[in-house]
Amino acid sequence: xxxxxxxxxxxxxxxxxxxxxxxxxxxxxxxxxxxxxxxxxxxxxxxxxxxxxxxxxxxxxxxxxxxxxxxxxxxxxxxxxxxxxxxxxxxxxxxxxxxxxxxxxxxxxxxxxxxxxxxxxxxxxxxxxxxxxxxxxxxxxxxxxxxxxxxxxxxxxxxxxxxxxxxxxxxxxxxxxxxxxxxxxxxxxxxxxxxxxxxxxxxxxxxxxxxxxxxxxxxxxxxxxxxxxxxxxxxxxxxxxxxxxxxxxxxxxxxxxxxxxxxxxxxxxxxxxxxxxxxxxxxxxxxxxxxxxxxxxxxx
Length: 300
Description:
Layout: E1 2-3, H1 6-26, E2 32-38, H2 42-58, E3 61-67, H3 73-85, E4 91-94, H4 104-109, H5 122-129, H6 153-165, E5 173-177, H7 181-193, E6 197-201, H8 208-212, E7 217-220, E8 238-241, E9 245-246, E10 252-253, H9 258-261, E11 267-268, H10 275-295
Helix pairs in contact: 1-10, 6-7, 6-10
């Protein structure tokens, strides 16, 4: 069994963009990321802190906006409008979930596609679905000029993990558990672009073990600890655990029974330390790409 360590992949990506950040400084520009968090979701606050720490380590300027849980939709949209128009801001990230009185799609779609570094706006997702932005899926180190919109960071993090560990997707049976736009749907589109045969499962799926046992590659993002157990997978399966669950005792675990399932898997991601670090690295890479565009460096 091979442990797919996202920290190694993340380190490679971050090291690769340090020179780009220095290049921006030489041209009198900075790379900056606006972080908008609404309310006090524990998971969002942890992610918020992790991104801020990563920004500081590589020289990206972060602009945190912590809004109260009862903020109005107009206040959020006005903030995003100001950030869209601010040439000092390279990228904008809205942390999800947001309070129920706010429409998440309206908020995310308010971010201009050029600064949608998380790749979750309607235009970014639409271009992914139409395979207008998927060329980067086939290049381990994509050129700046081909990225006119950004791919969703977490699913793209899965692709980068596969690239790093030499895992072939083409022709494989891929089962994805979870249909969120943030992960499941977007990952399914990426896997289809790479010519996998994809099955997407969700809470209404009948006989989930029957589906998961057929998987050559099983990706799980359901938000339920120990959802996938040893009897639900076949020998040699590749397991990508994207779930992040905080237990009452303080431990953070994924959606897969790691101890049991790892005995049958050929490759498996840990939680924490698997997809999460790669997601952050890609987010910051996208922010640098956006900063280069703003001052025209991507055209050089």
